[in-house]
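Attaching the record inline, Q. Sequence:
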Amino acid sequence: MNRTVLSSTLNTSIDPQCGVCSARFSQPATGRPQVYCSRACRQAAYRARQTVKHALAESTRLRDSLYAIRLEFDAASRHLAATLAVRDSVAPDAPRQDLGGGWETEVAMSAQQLRLLADRIHETVNDHSQIAYRYRSAGRVLRTGTELTRS
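Structure, as predicted:
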């Protein structure tokens, strides 16, 4: 039995499953083995791989952004704590000469900065959640792990 006959016999005995929709399809007798049952499934797999690639890059960017915001938040909270500590360091029985010693304004500004940073954290986490959803959706299209490595 020659090699071509053996190859075509093997191809027809077990029909492969599509890498996207899991439909069974028959392999052609010659040429490169197909992975997908149709051009539509091949295009869906390509788009899913692109989505995965972009989602990973965007996720990395958002994690870096979140780390930078965390550092800003830490600095702002330390500043607020230091401002309050200075205010509290005055002896309780010392006469209070000034009603508006300036610390109130500084505490209010620090609190406003912390609020803005908390809003940025919230937005970043929401963006990351949306990207994670797209990543999981693309993973459902690419049902095998080997498809994720092809680009």
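The chain has one domain: 11-149. DSSP finds four helices and no strands in the chain.

More tomorrow.
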